[in-house]
Design a protein that fits this description.
This protein is α/β, with parallel strands linked by helices. It has eight helices and eleven strands. 30% of the residues lie in helices and 28% in strands. Strands 2-3-1-4-11-5 form a six-stranded mixed β-sheet. The protein has a five-stranded mixed β-sheet with strand order 8-7-9-6-10.
Length: 214
């Protein structure tokens, strides 16, 4: 690991919502992180940089030491099987739900072996295992709502913010699996070796979260 702190983020809504928190913690990118083509952006704090990676890759960068800290959704963390990270803070941003959805007439408790399309195979397998159901999981990376419409799957497990996309495609929520929000994660080794830098950083982020919004 390099000296200073490396913070893994992903472009989009979570980045835009995280930057004000970093600013409250005294960290400001040296250039516009939302538009730059650079994957590593320096900040006003010497040795501290932002790494811009895919959301699904943030846990891996943190676990394997490419980054000391990171911000990613709880949905991504639930799908990550590693154990080399801590999850000290719920940032309360990027809030949505992970749901089971399908056509209104579909019986999600059917004894027949249902097909479920999702980009969260591990979460989906665990969910149906708890229900005592065996299902066939189809891994997709997007346009999940299309799978039931073309008869490829009976159900989907996906992120829902407003439900408008489900409604537009004739699907309904059949079960609420888990609430999702962005979490701050920390590499376990960094937490020990960079204790003097990371603990004050977490404290400043926590203080920023406690401030009333205007």
């Amino acid at each position: 690991m390099n000296n200073g702190l490396a913070i893994a983020l992903t472009k989009g809504r979570i980045l835009n919502d995280t930057l004000p928190l970093l600013l409250e913690a005294g960290i400001e990118p040296a250039e516009d992180a939302s538009t730059t083509r650079k994957l590593r952006v320096e900040t006003n704090v010497p040795g501290t940089s932002l790494l811009l990676v895919r959301a699904s890759d943030v846990p891996a960068y943190v676990e394997y030491g490419g980054a000391d800290l990171g911000v990613t959704g709880k949905d991504v963390l639930l799908e990550h099987s590693g154990s080399g990270i801590y999850e000290p803070l719920d940032l309360g941003i990027g809030c949505c739900k992970l749901v089971l959805a399908g056509k209104p007439e579909v019986d999600a408790s059917a004894k027949t072996r249902l097909r479920v399309a999702t980009k969260y195979p591990m979460v989906t397998a665990n969910y149906f295992a708890r229900r005592g159901q065996q299902v066939e999981i189809i891994k997709l990376y997007g346009s999940m709502e299309l799978a039931p419409l073309v008869g490829m799957a009976d159900l989907i497990v996906d992120i829902m913010e407003t439900g408008s996309t489900l409604k537009a495609n004739g699907l309904v929520v059949l079960d609420h699996i888990v609430d999702v929000s962005a979490r701050l994660i920390v590499n376990k080794a960094s937490m020990k070796m960079k204790h003097a830098e990371i603990h004050p950083f977490i404290a400043r982020i926590k203080q920023a979260l406690a401030q009333p919004t205007t």
